[in-house]
Automatic annotation (TrEMBL):
Classification via SUPFAM superfamilies: R3H domain (SSF82708), Ribonuclease H-like (SSF53098)
GO terms for MF: 3'-5'-RNA exonuclease activity; RNA binding
This protein's name: Uncharacterized protein
GO biological process, one term: priRNA 3'-end processing
Pfam families per the UniProt record, alphabetical: CAF1 (PF04857)
Membership in a protein family: Belongs to the CAF1 family.
Superkingdom of this protein's organism: Eukaryota
GO cellular component, one term: nucleus
InterPro entries linked: CAF1_poly(A)_ribonucleases, R3H_dom_sf, RNase_CAF1, RNaseH-like_sf, RNaseH_sf
Length: 281
């Protein structure tokens, strides 16, 4: 069964169950390359050969992970298999997730292309993942940011960022138009308003002035759309309770984004936790 970002969370419970109940696992991987240098020779021992292959492949990405769990049926005296084919691709979903660099080898990509590998599906629907060190750092950074936000909310003290950047007239006009639209929203009876799409630089300029100009009358946040575009959303705040409720929603959304970034690593963790059976590559 093919697994991508769109159906990964739905299939994850059954994948974990199959891993927990199986007798052995077979794994097959596709990578963006196999070796950075060709230093393997016929006189290498098995250990030397393995170490060279491992060392030479560390800068390449695994982009497809085939996982097949086998379980013995005692009544029928046969092995039954449950297979999954994962498209995996690390993406920086938010500022807390690292933006990865990796190597590609032309012969490997040519082989994959000739075998019908769907690169569009990989980049658009690939499941993200973080290793344990990356996850720990992301959780720590996210926790620190949430604590700072909670303290500012508790003390009702909002200090705008200092903008040391020179803003050209065109960008200044665009930012002013956005705040004019926010003021119109505050004067209306709407509870929420999606602002016109703008790039990350303009969003940063808006955030730098938002806390001072909104004066606790509205909350501003960035939301990701299904097509991966990002938009600013302004929400009315009527009281401190409203601001606390809005902060809880933001925290929930951030935690969900982190879970999605961890993604395929949860499958690897399930395999590691069930190492009572042999694994074949």
């Amino acid at each position: 069964m093919e697994v991508t970002r769109s159906n990964f969370l739905q299939l994850l419970p059954s994948i974990k169950e199959a891993i927990a109940k199986c007798d052995f696992i077979v794994i097959d991987c596709e990578l963006t390359g196999l070796n950075t240098v060709n230093n393997i020779n016929a006189f290498d021992t098995q250990k030397q050969y393995y170490e060279k292959v491992r060392r030479n492949s560390k800068d390449f990405l695994i982009i497809q992970y085939g996982l097949c769990m086998f379980r013995y049926d005692v009544d029928k005296k046969v092995y039954k298999q449950q297979g999954y084919n994962f498209y995996i691709f690390q993406t920086g979903a938010n500022k807390f997730v690292p933006d990865h660099r990796f190597l590609c080898q032309s012969s490997s990509l040519d082989f994959l292309s000739g075998s019908g590998f769907d690169f569009n599906k990989l980049f658009k629907e690939g499941i993200s993942y973080l290793n344990s060190n990356e996850e720990e750092k992301c959780r720590a950074s996210l926790s620190d940011a949430q604590k700072v936000r909670a303290n500012k909310l508790h003390n009702n003290s909002f200090t705008p960022e200092k903008c040391n950047q020179a803003i050209n007239d065109e960008d200044k006009e665009l930012v002013n138009n956005i705040f004019n639209e926010i003021r119109d929203f505050i004067a209306s009876d709407k509870e929420e308003h999606v602002l016109p799409k703008c790039n990350a630089y303009i969003r940063r300029l808006v955030y730098q002035q938002a806390e001072a100009k909104l004066a606790n009358k509205a909350s501003l946040e960035t939301r990701a759309l299904e097509n991966r575009d990002h938009v600013l959303v302004v929400t009315r705040l009527k009281s401190k309770e409203d601001r606390e409720a809005m902060n809880r929603k933001v925290v929930e959304r951030e935690e969900e984004q982190l879970r999605q970034s961890i993604g395929f690593a949860s499958v690897i963790k399930a395999i590691v936790e069930s190492v009572r059976f042999p694994i074949f590559f």
